[in-house]
Amino acid sequence: MKIAISGKGGVGKTILAALLSRAFVEAGYSVLAIDADPDANLAATLGFANADRITPISEMSTLIEERTGTRPGQIAPYFKLNPKVDDLPERYCQENNGIKLMVMGRIKRGGTGCYCPENALLQALITHLLLGRDEVVILDMEAGIEHLGRATAKAVDKLIVVVEPSRRSIETGLRINELAKDIGLQNIAVVGNKLRRQSDRKFLTSSLPGFEFLGFIPYDQAMIDADLANLPLLDSSQPITNEVRNIYQALLSTTRQSTK
After folding, report:
1. What distance in Å separates the CA atoms of residue 35 and residue 190, rounded to the nearest whole number?
2. In this predicted structure, which of 43-47, 146-150, 188-192, 205-209 has the lowest mean pLDDT?
3. pLDDT value at position 209?
4. Whole-angstrom distance, CA of residue 20 vs CA of residue 187
5. Fewer CB atoms inside 10 A, N or C side of the chain?
6. Which residues contact 232 (CB under 8 A, 6 or more apart)?
7. What pTM value is reported for the model?
8. Dihedrals φ, ψ of 110, to 5°?
9. Alpha carbon 202 to chain centroid distance?
10. For residue 77, is pLDDT > 70?
11. Reading across the β-sheet that carries 94-96, which strands appear in turn?
C-alpha cells in the first residue's frame, strides 16, 4: 500500500503519518516512512534519536553530483534525468521501532534553478519508492503534491488530505484535490483533525461534499502539552491513537474494495 498525506501547514499531517506508520508496523507490515515536508519533523515525531542531524537527500551535494553528473548550484546544460537510485533506500534509511525512514528535503520550484539535479534525483527516488518497493510506503508531504508526478500518481493507493475546521484549511484541501486530479490521481480521501465539538464535524462534511472521509481526529490538549514538554508524542493521547487505528482499518477496507 502506498499512501501520500498532504494538507495545509500545521493541520497535523506528520502526527497522522507517524501513527499510521506505527499501526501498519504493529500489524506486521514492512513500513517505509518518507518525510517530504521541508519542515522535516517526521523523524522527531517517530522518536528517532538525533533527528535534527539527519541530512535530507536534497542536501547531499556529493551524492547528487555522483548520480546526476552535476553538482547542485552549478550551471550545466545536461545532467541525468533518470539517475540510479535503487540502492539509496538501503544506504540512507534510518530505522527505529521497526519503521524505516527517509528524509527527502525540499523540491525546488520554478524560478529557483529548476529543473535542477536535486529535483531529478528526488523525483527518481520517489518514483522508485512508490513503484519499485514491495512494502507500505507513507509519504508525508507539504501543502501540495510537488513530489508526485503522473507516473507516481498511479502508484498511490490513497492521497489523504488532512483538514481542520477552518476556511483556510478547506481552501487548501480543495486546491490539493484539484492538483491531484490534474495528474490523474483519483483515490483521494479526507481526514478531519483537531475537532473539538460535533459542529466541527458538520462544518467539514458540509464544506467538502462528495469527499470520502476516513475519520475524524479529536483535539487533545495532552498532545500539545507533550510537544511543549518535549515528550514522546505517539503515546501522549489515547483518543487520537484510537481514531488513527480506526483510520488504518478504513484504509485497509477501502483499498481491498478498490482492488476487487
Report:
1. 20
2. 146-150
3. 95
4. 18
5. C
6. 47, 226
7. 0.91
8. -55, 140
9. 26
10. no
11. 94-96, 99-103, 31-36, 136-141, 2-7, 158-163, 188-195, 212-218
d(CA 189, CA 212): 5
Q: Are residues 16 and 37 in contact, defined by beta-carbon separation less than 8 angstroms?
A: no
**Helix, strand, or coil (residue 260):** coil
CA pair distance 208, 104, nearest whole angstrom: 31
d(CA 34, CA 85): 15
State CA 242 to chain mean position distance.
Answer: 20
Q: What string of DSSP letters covers 136-204?
A: EEEEEE-SS-TT--HHHHTT-SEEEEEE-SSHHHHHHHHHHHHHHHHTT---EEEEEEEE-SHHHHHHH
Q: Smallest Cα–Cα separation from 161: which of 4, 2, 1?
A: 4
Domains in the chain, start-ordered, CATH in brackets? 2-258 (3.40.50.300)
HSE, side-chain direction, 13 A CA sphere, residue 221: 0
